Amino acid sequence: MESETERIALGLRQRDVVVLEALVEQYQYRLVRYLVSLLGRRDGVDDFVQETWLRVLERGGSYDGQYRFEPWLFRVARNVALDAMRKRPMFSLDSDEADGVGSSPASGEPSPYTLAARTQDAERIAHSLQTLEPVYREALVLRFQEDLSLEEISVIVGAPVSTVASRIYRGLATLRPRFEGDTA
Fold it and tell me: Is residue 89 predicted with pLDDT exceeding 90?
């Protein structure tokens, strides 16, 4: 019996349009959400999503089906975003330092997180995430929003598991003071 990941791998190797359409339908929302989180803005994300799916189609043969599809897909999306940022520098995802550009929404309009927030706490968390340095925001989003393991995140960001764990710890440590003593 063929596993889901093996079916996806075979479909991508054969450039099966039905498989690709099913993947787009299943992962489109999560991919948009990840890229918005990664970039800290909504504008231009649709282009990155489209480029990600084109690369999935072009390079689908490199997905072997040994592991879950999500980490591979998010790695492709991350590479698309990094390639674009190299052409037009905004900030580095591989650095602990942000230059302030791209670390918050580009306009004064609420981010997609704020718009989607249904409670006051969710709005506070969404706003706080937008203020984190990109490396911490990315690690937290992949861990807690996309529910990926430290090992899967390590593959996506190309960093050791210990670095991923450190980024999550530091991101949470940065967020904690914003919420402690604010429960009144």
Answer: no
